[in-house]
Amino acid sequence: MLVDLRNSPLDGQAAEDLLHEVGITVNRNAVPNDPRPPMVTSGLRIGTPALATRGFGDAEFSEVADVIATALADGSAADVPALHARVTRLAREFPLYAGLEDWSLAGR
Predict the structure, then answer these.
(1) For 32-82, how does the pLDDT look when each residue is reduced to its tens digit (9 = 90+)?
(2) Structural domains of the chain, ranges and CATH numbers in brackets
(3) Distant-in-sequence, close-in-space partners of 8: CB < 8 Å, separation ≥ 6
(4) Whole-model pTM?
(5) 30: buried, middle or exposed (CB in 10 Å: 19+, 13-18, 0-12)?
(6) Which residue intervals define the domain Serine hydroxymethyltransferase-like in the entry (predicted)?
(7) CA of residue 40 relative to chain centroid, distance
(8) Cα–Cα distance between 40 and 59 in angstroms, integer?
(9) How far apart are the first and last CA of the chain?
């Protein structure tokens, strides 16, 4: 999914950095006829396969969308710790590899 930030006070780089602080990985990406330089951009690419791999359903995708929308709307005033806590809760509820946290190399 590509998010167009041309009408936002945030550019792609600032939005990418903010969402990284929140715990969500996205990539800044050019949009068609992008007025900003390639290393800054006016867009964000949001990949969803990792969420589907974790088993996210509609409710979880909506929660992620709300975290992203809140962070982008609030910009530098975003409550990063609160948003990060929401992301952490989702990641704990839907681990990438269930059972991996109990696995170790000790004794192998």
Answers:
(1) 999 999 999 999 999 989 899 999 999 999 999 999 999 999 999 999 999
(2) 2-97 (3.90.1150.10)
(3) 15, 72
(4) 0.86
(5) middle
(6) 1-68
(7) 17
(8) 32
(9) 42
